[in-house]
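Hey, can you fold this one?
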Amino acid sequence: MSEKRKKRYFWLRLKEDFFEEDTIEWLEEQPNGKEYCLIYLKLCLRSLKTEGLLVRNVGTTMIPYDAEALAKTTNSSVDTIKVAMDLFQKIGLIDVLETGEIYLSQLNELVGSETESAALKRLERSKKASATLSHDCPSLGRTNVAESIEYRDKSIENREKEKKPRNRKKRVYESTSIYFILAQELFKQICQNQEIKEPNFQQWADDIRKMIEIDKRTEDQVRRMINWSQKHVFWSANILSARKLREKYDTMAAQAKRDQTPQSYSKPPIRKEPVPEWLEDPEGYNARKEAEISGCSLESDDLPF
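Sure. Predicted structure:
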């Protein structure tokens, strides 16, 4: 296969509710928020081929972006970039690695790709399907192709629905169940920040159960995440249900780890050198030096000249 056919194309896939997600919706609400969203999408496109790692290839060397380089590549001002990057890091859209590279942590969910060969085959199949339908009924064209595909997809969806068991009994959680207790703890913590109506604790308990049984979280991890999320400025306003707690757990866990060891995207790693003895213990150092000098003078008196 020629190198041309091996070439791979990448694209960004946005879900229909992309701008309704908590992080993006909050970002748009900020001053200049729409510009920050545009910057984020530009950075996503810039890092498609490097799997979310935002670096520049200079010869054989990979160099992290600084604020000035980011401003140039996104056609923004340096001050706007600095504010945007701080916000991105705050809500978990980016991670700053120890080596200075910027990693777009949620990009893998938005990336699509295919080789040129695959794209040509897909186009060829589409043309054949269109030609067959047009031959049978000339008044029909590409519209029928789309309708045929849609009908096929709906048929598959209906068959899948028929396979699912019906009238399945819902779980009922006692008030002494750990799932029910954690659901109540979450509600109490939320109420300390804002007023919300009393939820369906059975549904919340079921979401907590899924976190523990399916997602393999421990009871202690769930409880700690409840406490952390409700003390956080951003997440306390967005984690308002057990379902949302489960959905955003991984993002919050990554951010909690970053908060313990904060990194600045614009600052290179700091090299730590051992503290000199004269700086750490000046009095002891001076005393030892005086003793050494005194010892040397005594020894010099014993010399035969």
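Confidence is low (pLDDT under 50) at residues 140-145, 297-305. Let me know if you want another pass with a different chain boundary.
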